[in-house]
Design brief:
Order of helices and strands: HEEHEEEEEEEE
Number of strands: 10
Distance between the termini: 39 Å
Shape: globular
Structural class: mainly beta
Radius of gyration: 17 Å
Largest sheet: 8 strands, antiparallel, barrel
Helix content: 10-25%
Number of helices: 2
């Protein structure tokens, strides 16, 4: 009887969140990975998880794709380290985005971040800011 009640509560709460943290980019970030539902296509599921690397061989970056829907909607944490020459301090942003084909697209103000799935363990990223050009990076799944 207790097991049945527990199952009902879990069903009501929806997808299981996996609370974790990662120490990277000069900070510790808390996040919740929500396992994609069974109806989310594998091509979209592949983006779910933690991806680490650097922009332009200079700026530490972690992309944490916390949730992916069957329509390709994404909730992610965009984590970055410091770059004193550019007056950048460590931080993160909670962003929403969309997967289109094999590319995850995040937008914020005049900034575009696009991540192309190269293989199941690699993203090729492009960060573009209006009027400031772009930088690239390679990110590995953890």
């Amino acid at each position: 009887m207790f097991g049945a009640a527990t199952l009902s509560v879990a069903t009501l709460l929806g997808p299981t969140a996996n609370a974790q943290s990662i120490a990277a980019c000069e900070q510790t970030i808390q996040y919740n990975l929500i396992a994609p539902q069974a109806d989310v296509p594998e091509a979209l599921r592949a983006f779910s998880g933690v991806w680490t690397g650097v922009w332009n061989r200079q700026l530490c970056h972690v992309l944490i794709v916390e949730q992916v829907s069957k329509e390709g909607a994404v909730t992610a944490k965009y984590v970055y380290g410091s770059n004193p020459s550019s007056n950048i301090r460590p931080g993160f942003r909670q962003l929403s985005g969309k997967i289109n084909g094999n590319t995850l697209m995040l937008r914020r103000d005049d900034v575009s971040m696009d991540y192309k799935l190269v293989d199941p363990a690699t993203l090729a990223g492009t960060y573009s800011r209006a009027g400031n050009g772009q930088v690239t990076g390679t990110f590995k799944k953890q």
